[in-house]
Amino acid sequence: MPLDEDVVASIYRDHGAALRRFVLSASHDPQLAEDVVQETVLRVWQHTPEITGSLRSYLYRTARNIMIDNYRRARRRPAETLESGLTEPAAVPERVDELLNRVLVEEALLRLSKEHRDVLVALHYRRFTVNEAAVQLNIPSGTVKSRAYYAVRALRTILDEMGVER
């Protein structure tokens, strides 16, 4: 399949910076991050017709798989593990999974309505009680409960559409 430079450029333009930050947060190695981003874009470009759901979710999952593959390869050659920038090799797959989940949940939250997102952030991130969230959001506590219920349902639907396993 010939390389469609416009598609590759579009993926880099729309997702490259966020993908690089994601990889850097796991590896702390700018060169490794750039290599992973390039390989990710190439793999995603090769599978573009098969992708269903969120392209960004697919990009992050692909980058995650590449990082884990790189980690496993480096682990087979211990001298390279220290040079790869991966400071705690045993925790790499778990750290990458944690980062991926955080990114995907943030993306899903952005797809919720502002009202639903505000209630979930108040209850689950800020750990407000229903009454505290009601005061903070200036809405009745019954509305907080109702919005929380529907927000969680909407969030589950969005995560399912994104292909995120729960």
Provide tags for this entry.
Arc Repressor Mutant, subunit A; transcription regulation; DNA-binding; 166 residues; RNA_pol_sigma70_r4; RNA polymerase sigma factor; mainly alpha; single chain
Query: What's the average pLDDT?
Result: 81
Which strand-content bin applies to the residues?
A: under 5%
Q: Helix and strand succession?
A: HHHHHHHH
Give the C-alpha Rg: 19 Å
Number of domains: 2
What is shown here, in short?
This protein is an all-alpha fold and 166 residues long.
Characterize the structure shown.
- It contains 8 helices and no strands.
- The chain is 78% helix and 0% strand.
- The chain has helices at 5-27, 30-46, 55-76, 78-83, 92-110, 114-125, 130-137, 141-162.
- The longest helix is centred in the N-terminal third of the chain and has 23 residues, at 5-27.
- The mean pLDDT is 81.
- Helix 1 (5-27) packs across helix 2 (30-46) and helix 5 crosses helix 8.
- It has 2 domains: 1-110; 111-166, Orthogonal Bundle (Arc Repressor Mutant, subunit A), CATH 1.10.10.10.
- With 166 residues, the protein is mainly alpha-helical.
- The chain starts with a helix and ends with a helix.
- This is RNA polymerase sigma factor.
- InterPro entries: RNA_pol_sigma-70-like (IPR039425), RNA_pol_sigma-70_dom (IPR014284), RNA_pol_sigma70_r2 (IPR007627), RNA_pol_sigma70_r4 (IPR007630), RNA_pol_sigma_r2 (IPR013325), RNA_pol_sigma_r3/r4-like (IPR013324), WH-like_DNA-bd_sf (IPR036388).
